[in-house]
């Protein structure tokens, strides 16, 4: 079976299974932002310690992005996908036994290591089974998982934290991960898997076509993507990780009120991500970076309006609009990787680019925590930092060059 021989039903089945995995990964990351309120009380932590806990996952996740992508290209995306889900399920469950700040940091770091190979390997699978003109839509479907999860997490976390507590909650999430790992093992069948089992050499890579991994770092496009990934995810995770705490401590809302308030921007995120995939697939060459830059400029303006808003209603209104433009940029960046680089190195390329995004996830929550402590509970400096990242993202996208570099002209290359 080759990629072209795969039926639409087979592609959609795999896409649906990958969507489940992305949803579970997002569930853990988003729900932690609410659970940390209870964890902080139980472990008697300050804002700086809370920021370190929120960042620990992203450090491990960032460290594993490049190795995870390389391993997916080298040994097969399905193997790395399975290993990733199994490891993250184990450490999600172990979060429930954390007894101190150090224990929580170590467990969350190892959880990040476990999950680190998931996005590069799943992105490679998308590039393997879908033609180029459908990859933007397929990736947008994956990314809508974040919006859907952010829609249900506020209310789900308020209910679960108030009934079974944060420890049992993480045990349940870990068990769900084990079930998804089984489904991956049983139902994800890729063209190269069939080729290997039948002895068919059609999908085996010729040694003469291999490209050194270092070629990725010689491609200017990759460096622009790394910077853009870092900046947009700094904005995204800065907002996602601290808005519950901000609304509770600075705007006086309780957890249930926060949950209902956050459903509105979550809905627009889903619409924004899903719609972005269709728009991106139809954009003429060069227009993608223009629209991405305009979106970043609007993000910066809306961030300013958010933290200067006089009422909670206005704050949520601006957050609702900004979520649409963040969704577009977050969908655009992986689509650029999938469309402009050979599918044989998608795992490595996605791992390299996404390292920037996950480093932002590590740095930003922790930096905000220190800023809040340094300014006596004020979030103003944190919002200015996020605005600066939006400006840098504009520059990274405007200077993006998809003509220079050997990899951009090597459709049949793979990583050595």
Instruction: Find the CATH superfamily.
Output: MFS general substrate transporter like domains
Instruction: Tell me, briefly, the overall form.
Output: globular
User: Can you list the strand order of the major beta sheet?
Assistant: 1-2
Q: Characterize the biggest β-sheet.
A: 2 strands, parallel
Strand content is under 5%
What is the element string, with H for helices and E for strands? HHHHHHHHEHHHHHHE
> How much helix is in the residues?
over 70%
Overall tally of domains: 1
Would you state the CATH class?
A: Mainly Alpha
CATH topology: Growth Hormone, Chain: A
In angstroms, what separates the terminal alpha carbons? 24 Å
If you compute it from the alpha carbons, what radius of gyration comes out, rounded to the nearest whole angstrom?
Answer: 21 Å
Mean pLDDT: 80
Number of helices: 14
* Strand element count: 2
Q: Unreliable segments (pLDDT under 50, ≥5 consecutive)? A: 194-211, 411-416
CATH architecture: Up-down Bundle
Structural class of the helices, strands and pairings? mainly alpha
């Amino acid at each position: 079976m080759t990629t072209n021989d795969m039926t639409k039903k087979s592609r959609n089945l795999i896409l649906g299974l990958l969507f489940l995995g992305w949803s579970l990964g997002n569930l853990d990351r988003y729900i932690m932002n609410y659970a940390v309120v209870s964890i902080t009380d139980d472990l008697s932590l300050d804002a700086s310690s809370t920021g370190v806990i929120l960042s620990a996952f992203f450090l491990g996740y960032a460290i594993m992005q490049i190795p995870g992508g390389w391993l997916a290209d080298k040994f097969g995306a399905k193997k790395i996908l399975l290993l990733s889900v199994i490891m993250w399920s184990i450490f999600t469950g172990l979060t429930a036994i954390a007894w101190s700040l150090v224990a929580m940091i170590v467990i969350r770091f190892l959880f990040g290591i476990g999950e680190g190979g998931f996005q590069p390997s799943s992105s490679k699978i998308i590039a393997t089974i879908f033609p180029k003109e459908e990859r933007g839509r397929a990736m947008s479907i994956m990314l809508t998982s974040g919006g859907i999860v952010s829609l249900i997490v506020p209310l789900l976390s308020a209910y679960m934290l108030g009934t079974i507590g944060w420890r049992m909650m993480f045990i349940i999430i870990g068990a769900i991960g084990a079930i998804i790992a089984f489904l991956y093992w049983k139902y994800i069948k890729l063209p190269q898997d069939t080729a290997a089992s039948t002895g068919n050499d059609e999908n085996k890579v010729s040694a003469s076509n291999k490209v050194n991994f270092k070629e990725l770092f010689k491609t200017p496009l990759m460096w622009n993507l790394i910077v853009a990934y870092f900046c947009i995810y700094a904005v995204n995770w800065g907002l996602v990780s601290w808005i519950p705490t901000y609304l509770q401590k600075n705007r006086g809302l309780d957890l249930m009120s926060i949950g209902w308030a956050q459903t509105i921007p979550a809905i627009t995120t889903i619409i924004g991500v899903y719609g972005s995939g269709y728009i991106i697939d139809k954009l003429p060459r060069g227009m993608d970076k223009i629209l991405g830059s305009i979106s970043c400029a609007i993000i910066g303006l809306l961030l300013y309006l958010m933290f200067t808003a006089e009422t909670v209603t206005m704050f949520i209104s601006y957050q609702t609009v900004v979520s649409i433009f963040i969704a577009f940029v977050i969908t655009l960046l992986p689509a650029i990787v999938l469309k402009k680089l050979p599918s044989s190195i998608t795992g490595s390329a996605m791992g390299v680019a996404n390292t920037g995004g996950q480093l932002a996830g590590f740095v930003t929550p922790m930096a905000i925590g220190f800023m809040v402590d340094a300014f006596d509970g004020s979030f103003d400096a944190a919002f200015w930092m996020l605005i600066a990242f939006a400006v840098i993202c504009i520059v990274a996208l405007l200077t993006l060059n998809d003509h220079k570099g050997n990899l951009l002209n090597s459709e049949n290359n793979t990583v050595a």
